């Protein structure tokens, strides 16, 4: 990513003031042509991002806010050189040149491209604390150098510029910040309250010069959303106002109180169904159809005003108590135009960018409904038939028969329109049936595993060589482990397995395990491995299943309680993918691995309950037949023997009571035998 031009590494300090030069995608080549010969002639050490694709990434919404815009990094030899270089750059780079504002730095004077901060020039193990470069001040103060989206100096270091007082802020006077809803290099999204009336709003921040996908500037998309929203009176958050403050633009909208479409439909999707309660399943399905109707009405409304939604996925819809809203129109566009960005995802296929916009929206809605109802989606138009069959089979598994799939198929048709499909929705029926167990035809025999988990890890973790080279340097190993962002088998958990396999020190391995434990987050299913700040993963490659496999491999007995706790997070009926490494197969394989170590009934509770219920019914059927036979025999004997006064009424009563007791004992014995055998 970077190309380094270090004149004399030994002459550079370990830490101190460093200079960053920013740019935009339009002028970064001009910046390079200005700076490179200047710095080379004066033998000043620096690095820069040299590949165009890496420049584009650094200037985009995908980059971290604290690191974006750092096109050039210049390393002065000392404070005196630092001040001289700053002034030289100030005189060299034209004042009208634009650059991305570097959030971790402070701008030099009125420049848009020259920034500086205090920090480490290179890593030094003597200054590391839990993998983070750390300085201690003269009075024991601690300062750590990690990515911060704000300018921060050690307490004992004086800034080279005077402090500037913040100007009067319109936003601060009129709004109170409540929470950050999402973070992005292009600008965060906040929930705010008005100071006067306390009314809730959504505030969308827009940072200049940050590019989105397709190299379209994010501010273009934010402005597009604002302009389209102004034209609409329904189904989208109402526009409140737009504010320019400092270098950013802010767009403020009505706050919609509700849940996204994934969360609001989960109680009505197949995820929540139970085989034992077909009536409840039918009610849930009918509720899902009602939400489908709301969704199609929303699409119909926007299409009637020639607006194409385009960016269709569950998170862009909010369901309030009485209404469904579309809340992200950045990538929406007017019918007849082309989308600013060609979107593609699990929901939106790439080829749909080149077809009629309204038809494209309908296709995406069809895929969205498949995903919401059964966590299915088509990867190509050829997959529709199979997805339809699987959906019907899943519904039949839960005792439901419906023609809902006809709606899905019409949404994928070449002439699909929301208004016509809305009419067809009135013809949808659902009724209860006996489970058909028809999924078998879509299942294949499980192939024998021809590889082990460790073999996969060996192939994937090519960076393990760094750990082997540092095998006896515990401090460096700790530092390397702290830098691992992925905590699953593609990351730290996989590395810990390899460390165990190659006989690394146990204390080092335990240290790595504790790093992961400290980062676990609480979810509805208990503690799980995070992939982002508030998102967890159950999969092998990056999530909880991967960490569990590492704990099993390293020391099952030592971590048995933690393994039991974490395994709660694997209890899921659905996954985004079916494969081993990042899908359901990996979760199932891990549960089976656990099952081979200990039998915990709660992991299989529903499974065993279903068998127990069926076995109990079989027992009752058998015992009923035996009991009836005994009663016939007793009645026959009573009739004959009673006729000749050879048997009393009391004896007859005791025979009946004895038969009932015998049948009860027999029922228990038969059930226990059947349950233990798994019949």
Brief characterization of the structure:
The two termini are 61 Å apart. The strands form 7 sheets. A 6-stranded antiparallel β-sheet has the order 1-3-4-2-6-5. With 679 residues, the protein is α+β, with helices and mostly antiparallel strands.
Could you walk me through the main structural features you see in this protein, from its secondary elements to its overall organization?
By secondary structure, the chain is α+β, with helices and mostly antiparallel strands. The chain has five domains: 2-144, phosphothreonine lyase (Phosphothreonine lyase fold); 170-254, Phosphorylase Kinase, domain 1 (2-Layer Sandwich); 260-442, Transferase(Phosphotransferase), domain 1 (Orthogonal Bundle); 460-598, no CATH class; 606-677. Helix content is 41%, strand content 14%. It contains 21 helices and 23 strands. The strands form seven sheets. A six-stranded antiparallel sheet has the order 1-3-4-2-6-5. A five-stranded antiparallel sheet has the order 10-11-12-14-13. Strand 10 and strand 11 form a beta hairpin. The longest helix has 39 residues, at 605-643. The protein is globular, with a radius of gyration of 33 Å. The two termini are 61 Å apart.
CATH architectural designation of the largest domain: Orthogonal Bundle
Number of strands: 23
Mean pLDDT: 88
What is the spatial order of strands in the main beta sheet? Answer: 1-3-4-2-6-5
Keywords:
14% strand, 41% helix, Transferase(Phosphotransferase), domain 1, alpha+beta, 5-stranded antiparallel sheet, Phosphothreonine lyase fold, globular, 679 residues, 23 strands, 6-stranded antiparallel sheet, 5 domains, Phosphorylase Kinase, domain 1, single chain
């Amino acid at each position: 990513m970077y190309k380094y031009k270090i004149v004399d590494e030994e002459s550079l300090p370990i830490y101190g003031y460093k200079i960053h030069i920013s740019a935009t995608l339009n002028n970064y080549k001009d910046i390079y042509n200005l700076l490179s010969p200047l710095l080379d002639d004066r033998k000043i050490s620096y690095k820069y991002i040299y590949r165009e694709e890496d420049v584009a990434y650094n200037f985009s919404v995908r980059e971290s806010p604290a690191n974006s815009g750092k096109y050039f990094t210049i390393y002065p030899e000392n404070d005196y050189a630092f001040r001289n270089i700053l002034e030289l750059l100030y005189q060299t780079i034209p004042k009208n040149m634009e650059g991305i504002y570097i959030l971790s730095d402070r701008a030099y004077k009125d420049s848009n491209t020259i920034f500086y901060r205090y920090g480490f020039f290179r890593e030094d193990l003597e200054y590391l604390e839990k993998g983070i470069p750390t300085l201690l001040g003269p009075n024991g103060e601690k300062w750590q150098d990690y990515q911060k989206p704000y300018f921060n100096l050690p307490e004992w270091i004086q800034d080279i510029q005077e402090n500037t007082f913040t100007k009067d802020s319109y936003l601060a006077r009129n709004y109170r910040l409540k929470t950050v809803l999402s973070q992005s290099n292009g600008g965060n999204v906040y929930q705010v309250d008005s100071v006067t009336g306390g009314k809730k709003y959504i505030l969308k921040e827009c940072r200049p010069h940050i590019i989105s996908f397709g190299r379209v500037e994010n501010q273009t998309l934010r402005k597009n959303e604002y302009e389209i929203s102004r034209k609409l009176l329904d189904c989208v958050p109402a526009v409140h106002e737009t504010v320019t403050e400092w270098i950013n633009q802010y767009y403020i909208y009505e706050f919609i109180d509700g849940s996204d479409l994934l969360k609001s439909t989960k109680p009505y999707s197949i995820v929540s169904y139970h085989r034992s309660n077909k009536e409840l399943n039918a009610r849930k399905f009918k509720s899902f159809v009602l939400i489908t109707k709301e969704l199609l009405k929303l699409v119909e409304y926007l299409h009637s005003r020639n607006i194409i939604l385009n960016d269709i996925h569950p998170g862009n819809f909010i369901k309030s108590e009485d209404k469904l809203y579309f809340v992200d129109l950045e990538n929406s566009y007017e019918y007849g135009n082309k989308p600013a960005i060609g979107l593609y995802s699990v929901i939106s296929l790439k080829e749909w960018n080149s077809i009629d916009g309204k038809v494209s929206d309908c296709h995406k809605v069809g895929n969205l409904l498949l995903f919401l109802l059964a966590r299915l989606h088509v990867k190509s138009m050829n997959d529709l038939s199979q997805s339809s069959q699987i959906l019907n089979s899943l519904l039949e598994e839960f005792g439901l028969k419906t023609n809902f799939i006809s709606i899905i198929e019409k949404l994928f048709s070449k002439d699909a329109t929301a208004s016509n499909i809305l009419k067809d929705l009135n013809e949808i029926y659902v009724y209860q049936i006996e489970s058909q167990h028809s999924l078998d035809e879509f299942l294949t025999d499980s192939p024998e595993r021809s590889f082990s988990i460790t073999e996969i890890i060996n192939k994937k973790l090519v960076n393990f060589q760094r750990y082997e080279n540092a095998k006896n340097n515990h401090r460096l190993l700790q530092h390397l482990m702290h830098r691992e962002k992925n905590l699953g088998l593609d990351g730290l958990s996989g590395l810990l397995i390899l460390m165990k396999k190659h006989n690394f020190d146990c204390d080092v391995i335990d240290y790595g395990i504790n790093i992961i434990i400290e980062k676990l987050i609480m979810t509805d299913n208990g503690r799980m491995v995070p992939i982002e700040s508030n998102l967890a993963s159950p999969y092998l490659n990056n999530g909880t299943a991967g960490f569990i496999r590492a704990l099993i491999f390293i020391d099952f007995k030592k971590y048995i309680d933690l393994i039991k706790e974490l395994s709660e997070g694997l209890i899921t009926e659905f996954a985004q993918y079916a494969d081993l490494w990042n899908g359901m197969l990996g979760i199932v394989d891990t549960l089976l691995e656990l099952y081979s170590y200990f039998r915990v009934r709660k992991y299989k509770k529903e499974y065993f309950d279903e068998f127990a219920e069926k076995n109990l019914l079989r027992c009752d059927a058998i015992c009923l037949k035996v009991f009836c036979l005994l009663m016939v025999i007793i009645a026959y004997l009573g009739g004959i023997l009673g006729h000749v006064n050879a048997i009393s009424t009391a004896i007859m009563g005791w025979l009946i009571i004895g038969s009932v007791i015998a049948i009860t004992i027999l029922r228990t014995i038969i059930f226990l035998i059947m349950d233990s055998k798994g019949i």
